[in-house]
Amino acid sequence: MTASTVVKQHHFDQKPLRGFTRWSKSHTAVVQQYFSDWIENTDRGGLPAKADIQKFLECNPDIQYQWTIVRNKVLNEKMAYAKRKKIVLDELEV
Predict the structure, then answer these.
(1) What is the DSSP string of 31-69?
(2) Which of 6, 11, 70, 81, by CA, is between 20 and 30 Å from 38?
(3) Could you read off the pLDDT of 17-58 as tens digits, one per residue?
C-alpha cells in the first residue's frame, strides 16, 4: 500500500460520492516547497499551468498522481495559507 491513497466516500443507501486523495506529509511538503510562489503569493491569481505541474511530476517520480490532482492540491494549499495568514493578521490587529 502506498503512503497516499484515494478514498471513496459513500452512504449505503446512496450512490458513491466523490473521491478524495489522502496526501502524505512528505508529499505535501514537496508540493508546498515546489509551488511556494503560487501558494504564498496571494496577490498572484490562478494556478500553475499544466506544463508546470507535469514538469513537477517528472522531477518527483515518487508522486504518482494525475496533474489535475496536483493542481487541486496547490489550490487547497493556497487557500489554507491565505486562511492562516488572515488569522495571524487579525490577531495582530487586536
Answers:
(1) HHHHTHHHHH-TTS-S---HHHHHHHHHH-TT----HHH
(2) 6
(3) 677 889 999 999 999 999 999 998 867 678 999 999 999 999
Domain boundary assignment for the chain:
24-93
Task: Say how many Å lie between the first and final Cα of the chain, rounded.
Answer: 47
Non-local CB neighbours of 11 within 8 Å, separated by 6+ positions = 17
79: left (phi over 0), alpha (psi -120 to 50) or beta: alpha
Residue 69's Cβ-count burial label (10 Å; 0-12, 13-18, 19+) is middle
User: Which 3 state secondary structure label does DSSP give 23?
Assistant: coil
